[in-house]
Structure formats: C-alpha cells, structure tokens
Design goal:
- The protein has 147 residues and is an alpha+beta fold.
- The protein folds into 2 domains: 41 residues, Arc Repressor Mutant, subunit A (Orthogonal Bundle); 71 residues, 2-Layer Sandwich (Alpha-Beta Plaits), CATH 3.30.70.
- It has a 4-stranded antiparallel beta sheet.
- α2 crosses α3.
- The longest helix has 13 residues.
C-alpha cells in the first residue's frame, strides 16, 4: 500500500457511497486509478465489505456490555467461535491476561443482558464471566487508518 491507497481508504471509510470520480477529484488522481486500486484492495482483502454506521441507541440498544470470559482449558477457540455467532455480539477479542477473551455486545435493556449472561453464556466451555456495563460511550468508531 502506498499513500494513494491510504488516501482512497480514508475517503471510503468516512463515506463508502462517495463516487470514484469524487474520490479521484479530492485526492488528485484519475477515476480509473481509483477504480483499479479499490478493486485491488478488495481482491487483497483490505476492503472486506461496505457498511452503514448505525446509532445503536436510536435503534433501542441502550446497553453496551464488556464481558470478560474464561474458557475451559483447551476450548478457547471453539468457545470464541460459538459466542461470535450471537446476534448481539459486536466483537470477540482473544486476549492476554487473566481472562481468555473480551466480548462487546449491545442490548435493549437489562433483562436482555441478564438473559445473555445467564442463558446464552451457559455454554459448556464457559468457566467464568465478568460483565461490565458501559455507563457513557465517549468514543466508538473503528474507522481509522494511519496516514
């Protein structure tokens, strides 16, 4: 990747609907250059998909939970894959430290969160959980690329 690729990615991160012509105009290259580079970035897996950013609170998901999970020895990968399938789960991170993974999930209310922790996380390979409720989201934006 070079500086032109980075500039293209920066534009698409903040407006994936921006036309290649507009991207080209803003970064000073031709539209065919933008098209060819985007196609290469897609083929190489740098661009995996296009998506809209949603305001989860406006959709009724008022609670964000950060859940530490310790798995039964030897079952971390299997458990991570199972947890990643739950629709409320936004992220699963395999981490270092006292726990094996961190799960970020969104819920409409405390009852949904309680059901998730008590029922959904009663999977056979869960040894222990520790749930944190987010009080205020100061920043939540995964759109970044080093320039």
């Amino acid at each position: 990747m070079d500086k032109t690729d980075v500039k293209i990615l920066q534009k698409l991160l903040f407006d994936a609907r921006m036309s290649y012509r507009k991207v080209a105009e803003e970064i000073g290259v031709s539209p065919p250059t933008v098209l060819a580079r985007v196609e290469r970035l897609e083929k190489d897996g740098v661009i995996r998909s296009y998506s809209a950013l949603l305001d989860h609170e406006k959709l009724g998901y008022d609670l964000t939970a950060i859940i530490e999970i310790t798995a039964v020895k030897g079952k971390i990968i299997e458990l991570e894959r199972d947890i990643a399938r739950f629709p409320n789960v936004c992220a699963v991170y395999d981490i270092t430290g006292l726990t094996d993974m961190i799960v970020i999930a969104k819920f409409r209310n405390r009852k949904e969160l309680s059901n998730f922790v008590k029922k959904d996380l009663s999977l056979p390979y869960v040894e222990r959980t520790n749930t944190h409720m987010v009080l205020i989201t100061v920043k939540e934006d995964f759109r970044f690329i080093e320039s």
